[in-house]
Amino acid sequence: MNWDALGAIAELLGAIAVFLTLAYLAVQIRQSSKALDLQNHFAAAQIMQARTDTMMAFASSILASAENTKAGTQILEFSEGDDMDDFSKEEADKITMILQMQRGMFENLYDQNKRGLLTDGYYEGAPTANLKSIAPALLAFEIPMSDEFENEVHRILALP
User: Residue 153 and residue 135: Cα distance in Å, rounded?
Assistant: First the structure.
C-alpha cells in the first residue's frame, strides 16, 4: 500500500466520522427541541395556574366582607360620566384600593400577552371582557398605570 491509498482511506474515514457526528448532533438537537417544547408548555401551565391563584385570592378578598363586595359591585356598575361625589371618602378609598389590585393584575396580563406568554385568543376573551367592565372606574378614579396600558384600556373601551 502506498501513501496515496492510505491518504484516501484516511479521508474516507474522516468523512464517515463527520457524517456520524452530524447525524448524532441532529438527533441531539431534535431531543433538545422536544425538551424545550415541553418546558415551554409547563411554563405556560404555571403562568395559567398563577393567574388562577391570583384570581382566587382577589375574589376571596372581595367576598371576605360585605363592604368589599359592595365596593366591587360599585366598580362594576360604574359608568363613564358617573358623579364621583356619589361616593363617601371611605367608599372611594376602598374602591381605589380594589382598582389598584385589579390594575396590577390586568396590566400583568397585558404584558404577558404582549411578550407572547398568553395567546391573543385567551387575552381577547375573559381578560378583555373583565377589563372592559372596570375600565370606566380605572380612568375615573385616576388609577396610576403605564401609558401603554392606559392606551390598551382606551382601546378596550372602544370595542363594541
Answer: 6
Look-up of cell digits 360604574 = 78
Q: 143: closest CA among 96, 106, 89, 109? A: 96
Instruction: Give me the torsion for CA of 96, 102, 104, 109, rounded to 10°.
Output: -160
Distances (CA, A) of 22 to 26, 31, 83: 6, 14, 71
**Helix/strand number for the chain, H first, E second:** 6, 0
Cell representation of residue 37:
417544547
Q: What is the DSSP letter of 118?
A: S
Q: Are 132 and 159 in contact (CB under 8 A)?
A: yes
Q: pTM for this structure?
A: 0.69
CA–CA gap between residue 86 and residue 118 (Å, rounded): 38
| Half-sphere exposure for 153 (CA within 13 Å, toward CB) | 23
CB 48 within 8 A of CB 113: no
Question: Do 157 and 132 meet the contact criterion of CB atoms below 8 Å apart?
Answer: yes
pLDDT, one tens digit per residue, over 111-135 is 989 998 888 888 888 888 999 999 9
